[in-house]
Write a structure and sequence with these properties.
By secondary structure, the protein is of the alpha/beta class. It is 47% helix and 11% strand. Keywords: DNA-binding, Transcription, Transcription regulation.
């Protein structure tokens, strides 16, 4: 039988069998502090600190505390034939039996529901609904006590119960109800990627892939605005599993045939080797038309290609004719995203590309870039990928990139750009 209810305003079932809120502010505060750690000894100093938070404790604080304990002992039923509240030098404890505290009862129901979920979703659904009905508001609502950890723990329990509810609803084929439950969870705690991922999968199960894609982009915007981060592995995995956007079975190998031997470029090739295998592997090869930029870039890319097991891309930007949106569309298709699921907004498309690239080892060659603006959104922001850019622009500057400047090709064999 539940005697103590803390999942909302504090209520107690007294000796007379009537459940209600304890009369008097300070005795109720003392009882709440004891209930934060049931069956544990709570120091008198902590009880005094919570009871007189807004003012200095009076000299009679310990005497007053004894009075409050006497009042509570009169209110509460006995425990196993003895006093409900026990005292010793410098501390008190409240004896609470199994099932007498609503928070403990909710925890037991949560465990039982999770255990039943796989084989008996109907029973899990019933148990989790019983547990959720124990909540009447914020734990310890209306009482000013130092119990942040306890309130957070109970809040986490409530979240787990709602997640179990969604799982049970899915197990019972009530997918629409599961989507509603998960949407509520995402609204209450929008920084939890696992909830967004589960919502996407539920929407997909319901036959709503467009909604699942909208959910992904909403989560991405929230994470970027609140935490300054991109979607993590769990959310990206949900996107791929929901929309069938797994990487192709055979990674792309798009590098053109290399010019061999490439005469007179040993120093430049060595510089590009170091750049493309370094900690921030981005390199820029600049020079006039006919200087052999493409030949050098392709040759350098072939020399390190085996390090980039998730593919090698060659994108001819045609001196500015290819738009950023078109290049991103081409690259996202190349790693396996269905065309219909690629965002139309260029910024969202770029964010999706960076997120996907962060978990891959890809080599990118962007040939004949007009300026930095044409390639800035295409470059890897982090992770093991590398990029090599060729350009005719003399003022092309990219922070952190290795720059190689070419004059005219030293031999006709190099003139492929």
């Amino acid at each position: 039988m539940v005697l103590f209810q803390v999942l909302g305003p504090l209520e107690v079932r007294g000796r007379d069998g009537v459940t209600g809120r304890p009369a008097g502010g300070k005795p109720a505060t003392v009882l709440a502090v004891l209930l934060v750690q049931p069956n544990a000894w709570v120091a008198v100093d902590r009880l005094i600190e919570n009871t007189w938070q807004e003012q200095d404790a009076p000299a009679s604080a310990e005497a007053n505390l004894k009075t409050y304990m006497w009042q509570l002992r009169r209110l509460l039923p006995e425990y196993d034939g003895g006093p409900r509240i026990e005292g010793r030098a410098g501390a008190y404890r409240l004896r609470v039996g199994p099932g007498e505290l609503d928070a403990d009862h909710a925890e037991a129901l949560a465990r039982e529901a999770r255990a039943a979920l796989a084989d008996a979703p109907g029973r899990a659904f019933t148990l989790v609904k019983q547990a959720l009905q124990l909540w009447r508001g914020r734990p310890f609502e209306g009482l000013d006590i130092v119990a942040d950890e306890a309130v957070e723990r109970l809040g986490e329990l409530h979240r787990r119960l709602r997640e179990t509810l969604a799982d049970a609803q899915l197990g019972l084929g009530r997918t629409g109800d599961a989507v509603t439950t998960l949407q509520s969870l995402a609204a209450d705690d929008p920084l939890r990627e696992d909830v967004w991922a589960r919502l996407m999968r539920a929407q997909h199960t319901l036959g709503r892939p467009a909604q699942a894609l909208t959910t992904f982009h909403r989560a991405r915007r929230v994470l970027a605005a609140e935490l300054g981060v991109r979607p993590g592995p769990e959310l990206m995995k949900a996107l791929r599993s929901v929309h069938g956007a797994a990487a192709p079975e055979r990674p792309r190998r798009e590098l053109p045939r290399a010019v061999e031997p490439l005469l007179g470029r040993d120093r430049e090739l060595a510089a590009l080797d170091r750049a493309l295998t370094g900690s921030a592997p981005v390199a820029v090869v600049s020079g006039p038309a006919g200087a052999g930029k493409t030949a050098l870039a392709v040759s350098a890319a072939h020399r390190v290609s085996e390090r980039f097991t998730d593919g090698q891309f060659f994108v001819d930007l045609h001196g500015g004719e290819v738009t950023v949106a078109a290049a991103l569309d081409r690259l996202l298709r190349g790693i396996g995203f269905p065309p219909a699921l690629i965002p139309s907004d260029v910024d969202e498309r770029a964010a999706l590309w960076r997120s996907e690239l962060a978990g891959r080892r890809v080599l990118l060659v962007f040939d004949d870039a007009a300026d930095l603006a044409q390639v800035a959104s295409l470059l890897p922001a982090t992770g093991p990928s590398a990029a090599l850019v060729t350009t005719r622009a003399r003022d092309f500057s990219l922070t952190g990139a290795r720059a190689v400047r070419l004059d005219r090709a030293p031999a006709p064999l190099e003139r492929v750009a």
